[in-house]
Structure formats: C-alpha cells, structure tokens
Design a protein that fits this description.
- Strands 3, 4, 5, 16, 17, 18, 19 and 20 form an eight-stranded mixed β-sheet that branches.
- This protein is an alpha+beta fold and about 850 residues long.
C-alpha cells in the first residue's frame, strides 16, 4: 500500500497543485487532515486532477462557461425588481464526501425531516406541544410564517413537507451542524442539478472514474411519490413561480422542464368552485399538484395577504382536497431560527429519540433566559431579526459581528431587542470548514464552505439527494457565511464504494421516446406575451424604417425613384403613426434640418410620445424577458443585440448624423435577421400562431393608418407621398418593375391594400390571420363552426377582395377613407376577439379534463 500523499511530500504535479494550499488554523479542512495528509476519499481525485495539464484545465474552464451560457444559467441579484441578470458562478473542484459519512448525514437529516413534519402537523392540528408547555405559544403565533387559515387543514397522507433543505456547516471538531432548516419553499436544487451537469461535461474522466452517486434517482423518487397523490392518470403538475424578475426563476423553469412539469405564475391560474385551473389557450385545465416557489403568505390574496404572486381562492381548492401542494401552505413555520433551540426536546416528545444532528447553538430572545444570554454576549454572537431575511448588519456590510460597532449602534440594538424581543435570536459563531477552490494559476486554495442538502418525501419515506449545493466565499468572514454576490457555488460528490447506477431523467441519445407533435399546454399569459411581442416587433420595424427614411432625407441621400419625398413629408407620417409627438413635428416644420442637428435625440426618445423608438425598444425588452425560454439561443442572442442598441439608452455620442444613419441601418439588419430566424426556426405551435397574429394585425394597422395619413389627407401624387408609402411597405422595387411608371394611386392601392401575393399588403395580413385562427382551439360550444375572430377576418377578407381600386382612387377622401375606417375597426375587433377568447378567461366555460364548473 502506498503512503498517503501530503502537501509537502507529493510528486511534482501534486506539489504544483497543492503549493498554495494552507489550511486555516482552528478550522476543519475537507482536503487535508491535521497531519497534512490527504484524506483517503480525496486521494484518487487529487491524483486525477494533478494529471490534468494547464491546457486541459483551461479547456475545462471554457467548456464550463460555454455550458452555463448555452443553458442560460443566471440569477437575479440585488434588487429583484431591476431584473438585472448575473451569471451563475461556480468552481469546478467539487466537495467530496465519503459514502460512510454521508450515510450518517442522511440518517440524521431524515430524522430531522420527520420531526419537522410532525411539528407542523401538531401546530396546525391538536397543538399538544403548546398545551403541554413544550413550545411557547408566542413563538408560534407571532411567527411570520404561521398562517391561521391553514389551521385544521390536513393534506393527503398527512404529508405537509414534500421537499426540504438543510443548511450545514462543519465545525472545528469535524461534526456537521445545522445552521438553518428550509421548509417553506427550499430553493437551489435546480442549480445543484445544473452544477452537476456542468462539472460532468467539463471534467468527464474525473467524474466517470469517481464512482459519484447520481442525482436522477432522487428526483425520480420524489416525482413518482408526488404524482401518486393525484386522482387522475395524467395529472397536470405545475411549478408556481413568482415570475421572471425573481432571483431563482431560472431554476424554477429548469427544474420544471427536468421533471416534466409546467412552470406557471399566479396570473396563469384561476380558482372556480373548489378547483384550481390553468388558463391555457385550449381552455381551463384542472391542476392537481403544484410545487410552490412562492412564500405561503403570498399564495392566496383573499385569505393570507393582498400582496403576493398567488391565486385568489387557492385555499378553497386546498380545503376541498382537489389540490396538493409541495410544500403545504404555512409549512415555513418550522424554518424559523427561534425553533432551533427547542428541537432536541421536541425530538424526545414526538419521536422518542435524541436529535441526531445538533443545530448551531441558538437562543431565542422571547424568553427571559434567552434574552439575557444574547444581551450579555452581543460581541460574540450573530444577532438576527426574524422579521428580516438576513442578519442585522452593523458596520462592514459583510460583518455579522458587533465587535467593530460603536456604542451608539450597540445601544440601538439593545433597545430594539428589549422592545421586540420575540423577533430576535442570537447564534453562536462557528468556524466553518474549508475546501479546495481552483485558482486561475492552476493551483488550489482553501476557502470556507457551507452546504445545502435536500430531502424529498418518497414512497419509502424521506430520502436525501446524494449531493447538494455547496457555497464558498473567497473573500469575507469565515464564520457563518451568508448569501452574498461574491459567493461561488460548487457541486457536491457523494462517493460510492461500488459502481453507481447511471440513469438520468434527461433523455439519452439511445432512449426511445414517444413522438409528440405539440408542446405542453400554452398558458394564456404566455400566449398574450407572444401576441404583444409580435405587435411591438412589427411596430418597432415600421418606426425604424421611417426614421431611417427621415434621416436619409435630412442627409440628402434620396433613394432611386423617391426624390420627391421631403423630410417634412416623412415627419408627417411619423406623427400620424405616433412615433413622434405633434410638438416635435411642429418644431421640425418650423426650423427644418437644424432642429434635428441641434437635438437628434428628441426624434428617437420623445418624452411626449408613447411610441417613440426608445419606448418601443424598452417595451420589447420587457416582454421578451418573460419569453426567454421560447426562443433558441441564436434567436435570443440576436434579439439582445437589437435591444442593446445605443438608441435604447439614448446614447448618441456627438449626435453625428452619419453615425445615427449607420445605427438605423444596423437596426434594420438586426430586425430582418430576427424575423428571418423566427420565420425559419420557430415550430408552428400555438405560440407561433399568436406571435404571428400580433405581427400581422400590427402590420395591417400600420399600413391602414399610413394610407389614411398620406392619401386621404394630402396631395400624395404630387408631394412624394405615394413613393413614401411604397418605401414604407418595402414595395417600391416591385411597383417599378411591374408598372415602369411614376406611382399612381390605383395600382398602389392594388399592391399595398388588396394584392394577395404581396406579404406587405393589408389583404395578405388578413388572410394569414384567418389561417392562424383556424389552427387555434375552437370556441366553447361545439355548434360554433367559426370563432368570432374567424368570422370577423373572413368578412374583412371579402370586403378587401371586392374593393374597386379605381373607384377608391377617384374618391380617396370619401370611399377610400370610409373603407379604411372599416378595415381599422375590423382589425381592432379581431384583436379584441383574440384577447377575450384566449387571454382573459373572464367568462370561461371551456374545461378540459374535468366536469362542468360549479362556480363558473
């Protein structure tokens, strides 16, 4: 048997890797023991990592970054409402845990999960723990997670907690301690899964030869057990998220996709009678099971809180027994730090056992003894306000300690504790263990570690994920590190003593899967967003084309066949289509080109105009954020390039005319590329239909408004208006090739109003809309052969096909104006019909997969 490796006596490759590894005194080190030897379960990994040369390590780093980027892995940090995405940071050196040690951790946490479930059952039921004096009533009733409407509600199988997480830290003596129980809506399991995928792809040989326990069986066992609570063979399971702007939305969507569930928001759901339904474009679909990632207090604004991302009436569906939640509303009651000090006694009372894993020593200030202990040791404890999500921070924003605080700050804290003692706990500081981090120089260094472990309810009881989500902080205090922007995540490898099962819930290349020709249910909110994405995209393209035409005329760069068009004529059309305000248009007519040169930003970001170019770019950005998962990587990158245009930030350096002109040309190119990608690459599912309906209706509306403004309110054949219309409709070359003459009104109307083969004509848009509507789910009553929108589009189609363009050209201010009035009204009526039928569900009677609605 070979001698164990040490940092000092290793070979050259090991020496290079371990050269900077110096464990911190007074801290347990995961890699090296007290004598400086590699711990046995690390030896094989370190040997393998040492064999990876500098070039291979750099390749692994690039592979990891590419995988994270391809999967769109990010989180929203800081102010969640700002929606500022930050890339997910991870270190490629995992945390290694030997199988034998893991069995002890898993056993202790299973006991803890059983205990927490039993506590929730008692506190929302008989309340024996309070009646017999094991828990103070104030600790429960004043708990911000306690939900009184949940009292007496017993979930199926008496399972309140389906998924839990426990935050662990290893103390200097090598024992794991629990720093926090997470029972409300534990986050991070999706990130743990993604970390595993990234590491296994970046360093495949180290992973394959490491006998690492896989994660898939954990998720499969959870899902199979959760599905067993449904009364239907094919239940609709949803993951309820607070939305795109929340910090963990990526993992909500990722985990839902991995498990085969639908990710939804409160606006996607409605309660009718005592049933919860998903509002989809096919009607209301009953939801049987839901994994919630929304705090309990926000689940039902009628009974819990008026603020939140939940669903009005949801508690009624829970009480009716038609909805199973993971976790049950109110289950966050047992994740309060105030409860930690009582768990040893409660384990004896409820389980008849000693608590197998201790918590970090914690004292609740709601008792006289606890308050005295905390106030007497303020300099040695971390003090937390239970009404806040983080600890009280004094002085340095990264510090939990009061050692550097002034007397005024200390006195203020003491007063707060005296006034609101039930809201505070004091916690002992524990020197967290250290684990290796890969450095840019190719070596490893020790950094403090905290670990989150996940448990799920299965048919055999609770089961721990063989891994977890580790967090390190290269800079900052070692004691009880909390979530911080400098944190870096790590994968956690539980090493098996035998070959492991390699199953995965992700479909493999050899796996035979059932063929499907459509996606999962399309929520009405998503369809609505796609519809408006199409409308804003088309509106933006029209504005960019017109503004480009305007800037070209300012520069005197008229295009062939359009020399009659003046900048003032383009400005009139910009005003008519509401891309500039009347005030800006009047100023230009008054001052001419100098008005543009003096303040070009005014014509792109007009504070008095709702549809100026910058406003349209920002509106498109807001909508696209909610649709990220609907677009391919290339389409999304192209869209971001468009939305990151300097015009969106009104950054016009020097206000150079040539620079603005080039920027508008780039926007036209980006829009053309984006439209081409969506046309060629998007699957023709329901989502595609709604996006294109929005584009077609908007294009028809824009053309109709432009015709009215140019033809019915001016001398279009003498002032270049007809050329401008052809240019806006991208039909100037078609007209020139077809007629070989100066533009005349009748053939122009034929080309841009009623020409079936011209993709820019109004009739073409109406026909495409009719085709889309025919492909969408029908109306509620089976006797209705056509929906309202279909009837409207068919009628409009007939009106346009029967239009006499010569007669309309002879009387543009009467016959044409009246027809355009009717067309515009019909387009709006079609839009209203689509909104009412597919998006609002205000009077919904269509139900799929359930009986008639009792309270519809």
């Amino acid at each position: 048997m070979s001698e164990p490796l040490t940092a000092a006596g290793a070979g050259s490759a090991h020496a290079q890797l371990l050269a900077d590894y110096r464990p911190k005194p007074g801290h347990y080190d995961e890699l090296l023991d007290d004598s400086g030897h590699l711990r046995p379960h690390w030896q094989s990994y370190i040997e393998g990592l040492s064999a990876v040369n500098v070039g291979e390590r750099e390749q692994a780093r690039r592979t990891a970054e590419r995988t994270l980027q391809e999967n769109g892995l990010s989180y929203v940090a800081g102010d969640a409402d700002s929606g500022a995405d930050r890339p997910w940071k991870m270190d490629l050196v995992p945390v290694l845990i030997a199988r034998e040690e893991w069995r002890q951790v898993e056993s202790a946490l299973i006991q803890r999960a059983d205990l927490l479930n039993a506590i929730v059952a008692d506190l929302y039921g008989p309340r024996r723990l309070i009646a017999e004096g094991h828990l103070p009533a104030a600790l429960v009733n004043a708990n911000p997670y306690f939900c009184r409407p949940c009292y007496g509600v017993t979930p199926p199988g008496r399972r309140w907690l389906h998924m839990l997480a426990f935050d662990l830290v290893r103390g200097p003596d090598g024992r794991w301690l629990v720093t926090g129980d997470r029972s409300e809506a534990p986050s991070g399991s999706g990130y743990a899964l993604e970390n595993r995928i990234v590491v296994s792809r970046a360093l495949p040989e180290l992973f394959e030869h490491g006998n690492v326990e896989r994660l898939a069986s954990f998720f499969r066992a959870f899902s199979e057990n959760f599905l067993s609570f449904s009364r239907h063979d094919e239940p609709l399971v949803a993951v309820l998220s607070a939305g795109q702007q929340r910090e963990s939305y990526f993992e909500h969507a990722y985990l839902a996709q991995y498990l085969g569930y639908s990710v939804v928001e409160g606006a996607d759901l409605t309660v009718r009678g005592d049933r919860l339904y998903l509002k989809s474009v096919e009607g209301l679909k009953p939801v049987d099971l839901m994994v919630r990632q929304v705090p309990s207090i926000g689940m039902d604004p009628l009974e819990l809180s008026s603020f939140g991302a939940g669903v009005p009436g949801l508690m009624r569906a829970v009480r009716g027994g038609h909805l199973v939640l993971a976790n049950a509303v109110g289950s966050g009651l047992v994740q309060s730090d105030a409860l930690l000090g009582y768990l040893p006694r409660l384990a004896q009372v409820l389980l008849g056992e000693d608590l197998a894993m201790d918590s970090v020593p914690t004292w609740w200030c709601g008792t006289d003894a606890g308050r005295r202990r905390v106030l007497g040791d303020l300099d040695k404890l971390a003090v937390r306000d239970l009404t806040r999500s983080k600890a009280i921070l004094v002085g340095d924003t990264d510090s939990y300690l009061l050692t550097e605080a002034g007397s005024a700050e200390r006195s203020a804290l003491e007063q707060e504790i005296s006034l609101r003692s039930h809201d505070f706990v004091g916690r002992a500081l524990t020197a967290a263990s250290t684990t290796p981090q890969w450095t840019e120089s190719g070596g490893i260094v020790p950094v403090p570690l905290t670990l989150r472990v996940y448990l799920a309810a299965t048919a055999e009881g609770y089961r721990a994920m063989p891994g977890g989500l580790a967090r390190i902080r290269p800079k900052g205090p070692v004691s009880l590190p909390t979530s911080h922007e400098s944190d870096i995540s790590k994968d956690v490898w539980v090493l098996s003593d035998r070959p492991v099962e390699t199953m995965s819930l992700l479909p493999s290349a050899r796996q035979v899967v059932a063929l499907r020709r459509s996606g999962r249910e399309l929520p009405s909110r998503t369809a609505d967003n796609l519809y408006w994405f199409g409308r804003y995209l088309e509106r933006l393209e029209g504005a960019v084309r017109l503004l480009r035409s305007f800037v070209l005329r300012i520069a005197g760069a008229q295009r062939a066949g359009s020399d009659l068009i003046t900048p003032g004529r383009v400005m009139d059309l910009l005003e008519a289509l509401q891309h500039v305000s009347p005030g800006s248009a009047a100023r230009f007519h008054r001052e001419g080109a100098p008005a543009f040169h003096a303040d070009p930003a005014r014509f792109f970001a007009d504070p008095d105009c709702a549809d100026d170019l910058v406003s349209l770019l920002l509106a498109l950005r807001r909508i696209s954020t909610a649709l990220r998962e609907r677009f391919s990587r290339d389409t999304w990158d192209n869209l971001q390039q468009l939305l990151d245009s300097p015009l969106a930030q009104v950054k016009l350096p020097g206000y150079g005319q040539a620079w603005v002109q080039r920027l508008l040309e780039q926007l036209v190119d980006s829009l053309s590329a984006l439209n081409g990608m969506m046309m060629e690459n998007m699957t023709r599912d329901f989502g595609w239909h709604f996006l294109d309906i929005g584009r077609r209706l908007e294009r028809g509306w824009q053309t109709t408004r432009a015709l009215r403004a140019v033809v019915c309110q001016g001398e279009a054949e003498r002032d270049g208006g007809l050329e401008l219309l052809l240019e806006l409709a991208d039909s100037l070359m078609t007209y020139s090739w077809r007629y070989k003459s100066e533009p005349q009104l009748a053939p122009l109307l034929d080309l841009v109003l009623v020409e079936e083969s011209n993709p820019r004509s109004v009739l073409f848009q109406v026909q495409r809309v009719a085709e889309h509507l025919a492909s969408l789910p029908k109306a509620a009553r089976a006797t209705e052969r056509l929906s309202v929108g279909e009837r409207q589009s068919i009628g409009l189609n007939a009106s346009l096909r029967l239009a006499d363009v010569y007669r309309l050209a002879d009387s543009p201010t009467e016959g044409l104006d009246a027809l355009l009035d009717d067309v515009e009204a019909d387009l709006e009526a079609i839009s209203d019909a689509v909104t009412e039928h597919f998006f609002s569900h205000a009077l919904e009677t269509r139900v799929s997969g359930a009986g008639p609605l009792s309270d519809a």
